[in-house]
From TrEMBL:
Keywords: Membrane, Signal, Transmembrane, Transmembrane helix. Pfam families: HupE_UreJ_2. It comes from Pseudoduganella ginsengisoli. This is HupE/UreJ family protein. The chain crosses the membrane at residues 199-216, 245-263, 275-296, 302-330, 342-359. Residues 1-25 form the signal peptide. InterPro entries: EF_Hand_1_Ca_BS, Put_HupE_UreJ. The lineage of its organism: Bacteria, Pseudomonadati, Pseudomonadota, Betaproteobacteria, Burkholderiales. It comes from the Bacteria.
Length: 364
């Protein structure tokens, strides 16, 4: 009994060293994990979404409780062995210690209610020193409740490397060099912008006025410079703004652009780049949210920020190219009268979507 208590206290100390400052409220934030390499061992803490597991839910509430963890430890451990594979020099590590704890205990949890995730604590050991582990995680399912990404940082002495694992890219060789970091964060940036409907709708609303190539180049450049400034400043910790403020304002910026389209139309082209620049500063704070939440790769801090921004810009270029091609086709198919109606209709729809998001985010 005393040995178990000592182990748990020791492990909590390890978790405190592994976790980022934002994680101090609970054991391991959702979608995150950490591995500390010490000699021949790897100490692991990962937030596990219970939707990736099966066979534990005795009361059929879709959550996991401390009682369910204790009742199904062996079965859960077997599933976790299949989900998490850590290798050094091609060899899998031996699991010397394992525990499963609810991530952030609360009065409701203590009363027997469950949570949507728990923290897995493990110690892996090899026959020799671990320097560049290869990690594979297989807990990403098509079901949105099973989690889409895991920001996993590995700590080796004074070095830290962060990788974002997903269903599409579920393995990573840590400390393999800057190129691997660049690839990871470029992909993350591209995914983030292309999966952000509010940023894309803002760009679409700005571009649809169709005031010509000079206008399109001016507004896209203005938006790019602006969001790059606040993206870097926010990710590096120089500025910060709560999502509860930023997200509603981003929705409001869509409404503002849509109303401007309806009010002034192409006549707004002369002053629009400055307005887009102001809104872009706001959007940069929203785009940076994913980096602020999980942090930059400490050993390649500047590189990971640069790569993320490259990915954002690459995704933006692809989207803008598709929009401009579509607008060109619309211009060929429709006469001037119907083009004007197309702009008004798309702007009305954008304003409605922006208002819905504004209300939802304000109430949330």
């Amino acid at each position: 009994m005393m040995f178990g208590i000592t182990w748990r206290l020791a492990w909590l100390m390890v978790c405190a060293m592994l976790a980022a400052p934002a994680a101090m409220a609970h054991l391991m934030p959702s979608g995150q994990g950490a591995v500390r390499l010490v000699g021949d061992s790897a100490y692991v803490t990962i937030a596990i979404p219970v939707a990736a597991l099966a066979g534990f839910d005795d009361n059929h509430d879709g959550l996991i409780s401390a009682a369910e963890i204790n009742a199904h430890r062996n079965m859960l451990s077997t599933q976790l062995n299949a989900m998490i594979d850590i290798r050094s020099s091609g060899q899998p590590g031996r699991v010397l210690f394992e525990d499963m704890l609810l991530s952030h205990p609360s009065p409701s949890v203590e009363a027997g209610q469950g949570e949507a995730e728990f923290a897995l604590l493990r110690r892996y050991q090899w026959d020799g020193p671990v320097t560049a582990p290869h990690v594979t995680v297989r807990m990403f399912h098509a079901d949105a409740t099973a989690g889409k990404k895991l920001a996993l940082q590995v700590i080796r002495g004074e070095e830290t490397e962060l990788s974002v694992l997903s269903r599409e890219r579920n393995s990573h060789q840590y400390f393999a060099g800057p190129w691997a970091v660049f690839q990871d964060f470029t992909l993350l940036g591209a995914e983030h912008i292309l999966q952000g409907p509010d940023h894309l709708l803002f760009l679409l609303t700005v571009l649809v006025v169709g005031a010509g190539w000079r206008y399109w180049l001016a507004v896209v450049t203005s938006f790019t410079i602006a969001h790059s400034i606040t993206l870097a400043a926010s990710a590096l910790g120089y500025v910060s703004a709560p999502p509860a403020v930023v997200e509603p304002l981003i929705a409001l910026s869509i409404v503002l652009m849509a109303v401007d389209n309806l009010w002034r139309g192409p006549a707004s082209a002369r002053h629009r780049p400055w307005l887009v620049f102001a809104c872009g500063l706001l959007h940069g704070l929203g785009i940076a949210a994913v980096l602020v939440e999980m942090g930059l790769s400490a050993s390649n801090r500047a590189l990971s920020l640069f790569a993320f921004n490259v990915g954002v810009e690459a995704g933006q270029v692809v989207f803008v190219a598709c929009v401009l091609l579509a607008l060109k086709l619309v211009g060929r198919w429709l006469d001037q009268r119907w083009q004007a109606r197309f702009v008004k209709l798309s702007s009305v729809l954008a304003a409605c979507a922006g208002m819905v998001w504004l209300v939802q985010r304000t109430l949330a």
